[in-house]
Every structure is written in structure tokens, then in C-alpha cells.
Amino acid sequence: MTIQEAAQRSGLSAHTLRYYERIGLIHSVGRNSSGHRDYAESDLQWLDFLTKLRTTGMPIADMCRYAELRRKGEETADERREMLELHRERVRSRIAELTQDLKVLDTKIDSYRGLS
Predict the structure, then answer these.
(1) Per residue in 99-111, pLDDT tens?
(2) Which end is more exposed in the chain, N or C (fewer Cβ atoms within 10 Å of the end residue's Cβ)?
(3) What is each CA distance from 38 to 3, 20, 30, 34, 58, in whole angstroms?
(4) Which residue has the higher pLDDT, 36 or 17?
(5) Angle in degrees, 0-180, between the axes of helices 3-10 and 41-55, rounded to the nearest 10
(6) What percentage of residues in the chain have a pLDDT greater than 90?
(7) What is the rounded distance in angstroms from the CA atom of residue 96 to the CA atom of residue 94?
(8) Is the pTM of this model over 0.90?
(9) What are the pLDDT digits (tens) for 21-31?
């Protein structure tokens, strides 16, 4: 699929897709006979995973390290798992912080309701 189709399906801009390729987050995408990028379904699956990592706050540098390890193959599986476990703990910690923040907001909203 073209870069525009990949952008539409992934929810990322064509600019972001080119950037991800340039910094090594995605491998060099195949080219069609015209020389244009030709994304495969597996590329979209990888982009979906990268989007999840980014949405959950993983720094780009860590994402690049993960992508580099992934390209090296199965011998890096333990290190990749460890990276994801560490990131999961950071996400859980952030969720706990947000839960506490939400309680404060709820308390404040309830106090305003009591004034009405």
C-alpha cells in the first residue's frame, strides 16, 4: 500500500512514517516498480505496536532501541521482554498517579455540587 494509505490506516501522518523510517523505528520499507514506498500488512501491525508504545509514554530513544533489538532476532527476546516489563511498570505507576489525581478532581467537583 502507498504511504498515504498506510498513513490513513495507521492514523499517523506520512511525515511521521518517513521520520520513523529515517530514525530506524521501521525498517526500510519496500518500494514498488515506480520507486514509491510499498507498505505491507506486517508494517501496519508494527506501526500499531509503536503507536501503543508512544501513547503509553515510551521515549523515542527506547522505542528505537527496541526496534534495533527486534531486527537482531530471537537472541534479543529476553532484553526486549525486560524493556517491556520496565515500561509496563512505568505505565502502571502513571495510572496510579492519574487515579489519585482523578480522586482530587472528583472531590472538588462534589464540593461545588454541594454549593448549588
Answers:
(1) 999 999 999 999 9
(2) C
(3) 7, 15, 5, 10, 27
(4) 17
(5) 40
(6) 87
(7) 5
(8) no
(9) 999 999 878 88
The angle at the Cα of 11, spanning 97 to 86, to the nearest 5 degrees, equals: 35
Q: Report yes or no: 71 and 92 within 8 Å, Cβ to Cβ.
A: no
CA-CA distance, 14 to 56, in Å (whole number)?
22
Q: Cell 534495533, residue?
A: 68
C-alpha torsion 81→42→69→19, nearest 10: -120
For cell 454549593, the residue is 115
> 51-78 as b/e, with b when 16 or more CB fall inside 10 Å?
eebbeeebeeeebebbbebeeeeeeeee
Cell numbers 503507536: residue: 51
One-letter identity of residue 3: I
Q: Which of 27, 49, 48 is nearest to 37 (CA)?
A: 27
Q: Give the residues across from 31 on adjacent strands.
A: 37
